[in-house]
TrEMBL record:
Organism: Paenibacillus sophorae
Gene Ontology molecular function, alphabetical: 3-deoxy-7-phosphoheptulonate synthase activity; aldehyde-lyase activity
InterPro entries: Aldolase_TIM, Class-I_DAHP_synthase, DAHP1/KDSA, DAHP_snth_FXD, DAHP_syn_2
Keywords: Transferase
Pfam hit, one: DAHP_snth_FXD
EC number annotated for this UniProt entry: 2.5.1.54
Top EC class, one word: transferase
The gene coding this protein: aroF
Gene3D superfamilies, per database record: Aldolase class I, Phospho-2-dehydro-3-deoxyheptonate aldolase, domain 1
GO biological processes: aromatic amino acid family biosynthetic process
Alphabetized NCBIfam families for the sequence: DAHP_synth_Bsub, PRK08673.1, PRK12595.1
Domain DAHP synthetase I/KDSA residues, every copy: 82-328
Domain (DAHP synthase ferredoxin-like): residue spans on this chain: 1-67
Protein's name according to its UniProt entry: 3-deoxy-7-phosphoheptulonate synthase
The keyword Transmembrane appears for this protein: no
C-alpha cells in the first residue's frame, strides 16, 4: 500500500503520517517525485489503518498495490530512478555503455581493453573474475586477482568497473574492487545472494534469468531493494526459446514493458542476447531505439582466442568504436544523451 501526498505537504505532516505507520510495526519507504511524495508501507495493512491514513492532513490518496513487487513498482516510485556513480549517470535520458571482455585474463589484456573502451567513448569497463560456466572443466575465471587487475585498469583509464558476483561470500570482496556488481542469469533467483546485495553499498545490475518472466525479474529486484539498496538496474540478456540459430532470443519488448512497470533503469545485453558477433550491432541499435538506458557489450582484442570461448559474440575494437559513434548519432533521436567525447572527461 502507498500513501500519496503532494510536494507542498509540510514536512511535519509527512512525519506525522510516518509516525502513525511505524507505530503499527510497518516498514516505511519514502519516495519524492517531481510532483508528489509517495510513502510506501511494507507489511500487512489493516482496513482501519488505511482509513485513518486516508483522513490525515496532507494525504491525497491511499492506494493498494496489487503487485507482489512494491519498491520496484512505478506505482511506488513514479519518476525514473537515476543512478549516479562517480559522475556517471545511468537511467532516465542518460545512455550508459559498458564494454569489455567476458573474462579478465591478464593485466596486459584488461589494461589494453580498458584503454580501447575509454578511447571509444564508453563509461564502464566490464569483465568477469568469477565465471559461472555450464561445464565444470571450462575456464572459471582467475578470482580475486582478476578483480584487482580490473580495478587497476579502470582507475588508470578513468572508467567505472562492473563484474559478476556469484555467491554471498564474495559480495564484500567484489564490492571492494568493483563500482557495480552484476548478477548473472543463473543467479537471478539466488535469494541469499540478492539479500546480501541489498546491503553491499554498490549499484547492482540484475540480469533476467533465461527462462524468467517480467514479474519474476522484478520480484528478484525487490529482494535487493527491500534490503535497502535502491541502486538496481534490470538487464535483458535474452531468453531461451525454440530458436537455435542464435544463442538466445533478445526480448526487445522487455525494455518498454519493464520501463512501464518499474522505475529502475533497463540495460540491454545484445552480446549474450544473440551470441553472434554480426548481430550485436543491429540489436544494440534496436535496443537504444526501444528506449534502453544502457548497453553491456563484449569486446576483445583477440576474441577468437579468448579463454572463455565466447569470442564468437565479442566485437573487435574497431567494431565497438564504430558502434558507439553510430549510437552517438542515434541517441538524441530517441531522447537519450550520449557523447563519445564527454566520456573522455570522466574521473
Amino acid at each position: 500500500m502507498i500513501v500519496i501526498t503532494s510536494n507542498q505537504t509540510p514536512e511535519d505532516q509527512i512525519n506525522d503520517i510516518i509516525a502513525v505507520i511505524e507505530k503499527e510495526g510497518l516498514q516505511v519507504h519514502l519516495s519524492k517525485g517531481s510532483d508528489r511524495t509517495v510513502i510506501g508501507l511494507v507489511g500487512s495493512v489493516s482496513p482501519k489503518l488505511a482509513e485513518h491514513l486516508r483522513q490525515m492532513k496532507g494525504v491525497e490518496n491511499v492506494v493498494k498495490i496489487s503487485k507482489s513487487y512494491k519498491l520496484a513498482s512505478r506505482d511506488f516510485h513514479p519518476d525514473d530512478t537515476i543512478i549516479e556513480v562517480k559522475g556517471v549517470k545511468i537511467g532516465g535520458e542518460h545512455l550508459a555503455i559498458m564494454g569489455g571482455p567476458c573474462a579478465v585474463e591478464s593485466p596486459e589484456q584488461i589494461d589494453e581493453i580498458a584503454r580501447l573502451v575509454k578511447a571509444a567513448g564508453a563509461q564502464v569497463l566490464r569483465g568477469g573474475a568469477f565465471k559461472p560456466r555450464t561445464g565444470p572443466y571450462s575456464f572459471q575465471g582467475i578470482g580475486v586477482e582478476g578483480l584487482k587487475m580490473m580495478a587497476d585498469a579502470g582507475e588508470r583509464h578513468g572508467l567505472l568497473t562492473i563484474t559478476e558476483v556469484m555467491t554471498p561470500e564474495y559480495v564484500d570482496v567484489c564490492a571492494e574492487y568493483a563500482d557495480i556488481l552484476q548478477v548473472g542469469t543463473r543467479n537471478m533467483q539466488n535469494f541469499d545472494l540478492l539479500r546480501a546485495l541489498g546491503t553491499c553499498g554498490r549499484p547492482v545490475l540484475l540480469k533476467r534469468g533465461f527462462s524468467a518472466t517480467y514479474d519474476e525479474l522484478l520480484n528478484a529486484a525487490e529482494y535487493i531493494l527491500a534490503g535497502g539498496n535502491r541502486d538496481v538496474m534490470l538487464c535483458e540478456r535474452g531468453i531461451r526459446t525454440f530458436e537455435t540459430y542464435t544463442r538466445n532470443t533478445l526480448d526487445l519488448s522487455a525494455i518498454p514493458v519493464l520501463q512501464g512497470l518499474s522505475h529502475l533503469p533497463v540495460i540491454s545485453d545484445p552480446s549474450h542476447g544473440t551470441g553472434r558477433r554480426e548481430l550485436v550491432e543491429p540489436m544494440a541499435k534496436a535496443s537504444v531505439a526501444a528506449g534502453a538506458n544502457g548497453l553491456i557489450i563484449e569486446m576483445h582484442t583477440d576474441p577468437d582466442n579468448s579463454m572463455t570461448g565466447d569470442g564468437v559474440q565479442s566485437l573487435f575494437p574497431d567494431q565497438f568504436s564504430n558502434l558507439l559513434q553510430d549510437l552517438e548519432k542515434l541517441a538524441p533521436l530517441v531522447g537519450k544523451k550520449f557523447s563519445t567525447q564527454e566520456a573522455i572527461s570522466i574521473k
